[in-house]
Amino acid sequence: MPQDFQPTGSASSPSSSHPSSSHPSRPSIATRSALRDSGHVHKPVKIEIRDNLLAKLRSGEPRFPGIVGFDETVLPHVERALLAGHDFVLLGERGQGKTRLIRTISGLLDEWTPVVDGCEINDHPYAPVCKRCRHLADQLGDDLPVDWRHRNERYGEKLATPDTSVGDLIGDVDPIKVAEGRTLGDPETVHYGLVPRFNRGIFSVNELPDLAERIQVSLLNVLEERDVQIRGYALRLPLDVLLIASANPEDYTNRGRIITPLKDRFGAEVRTHYPLRLTDEVSLITQEAELSAVVPPHLLEVIARFTRLLRESTAIDQRSGVSARFAVAGAETVAASALRRAALTGESEPVARVCDLPGIVDSLQGKVEFEVSEEGRERDVLVHLLRRAIAETFRARLGTADLSGLLAHFEEGVTVESGELVPAAELLKRVGKVSGLAKVLERLGDEGGEDPGRAAAAIEFALEGLYLTRRLSKDEVPGRTVYGG
Hints:
The protein is of the alpha/beta class. The protein contains 21 helices and 12 strands.
């Protein structure tokens, strides 16, 4: 199995469960006659998806779990494509959730579907299409053995890479079967590729423009005539598959292209986008990031604003985009910085603070493509935009808050030293008692006011905001920050 092939049920797919014969909901029907007696009706996969999607639309159930920010834009187009029974292309920049969205569509399949036992291409017991299963059906009649496939086993994907071959996607002659004595013209000597193996399911080709044009040609019959051709075999294999592809606009127009006949055979092209609202960006970070420490809501908002400023900056190559993975990795980096401080200083609970944010710049600079004119200024651009993100979050959260109690500590030239290795308790001790701290925490959306780590995070954010709005001075050297003076 190619390394870049990812079946549903893997660690990165929507469901981590793997069906087995002991699955409690697995049907026990084992023959075609019993299947008929149960009243089972055979549906093509696109009709199956349409019926299940309509049922979810009517009931109000989530159709695409885990997808954030597409409810009013992308998802209606996807739903129309599925209801129309169209194969389609998702077109968008990197890190916009294209693959994640495609994987959720497997949730619209029936939980279990019957197949002819032992069939490589999941033939339905009522209508087998491969030579082996047709022969068995003629021989056994209604005693044809039936197996069951879970929806997780009916979704597969292939990343388009330069070494992808027609054999990988469609199939090739299996020399082992020929060596066993079958004639070269026998269809049973064919080793099926990935597309036929997901017959009666969903198959996705990621980054389709990167697939060589001569390999794209092999998909033409799959999309239009719904059959496959393998090395000149007179092999009529009507496939029942929903084919979905993803593409990056930069590749789509410059580095690679989808050949015109193939584009014509896809029923729809759906454009994706980055989250349009700040709240969606924060929700996405919260959902996807695996945080090793507490990251208060105001810092997640800073990271979200920072990511959005990068997407708007003329210094950044917007053709490459700024992936949602940037924001997720940023949150994880900030949490890791807090965890490191706790390990070195003995803090009981690691809580991220403003002093942990600069780590994003050094750790994630390589994830952003800059314009050529900015060569040599990359770090300065990121530092400037991060400060803007902090200032905008401060204005939104604490812009109208009464911080006179905090400012009073600095009226006589008093200074407060902070830094990435200053524990929360020490910072609170240096600041002293601050009136109105509970109100500050409330405005920051943090309910852990009694916790020293969260209180220190709120105070340090307020100090940084006062500095950025020119109400407080600050001296800074690596690892050490002094407010006031």
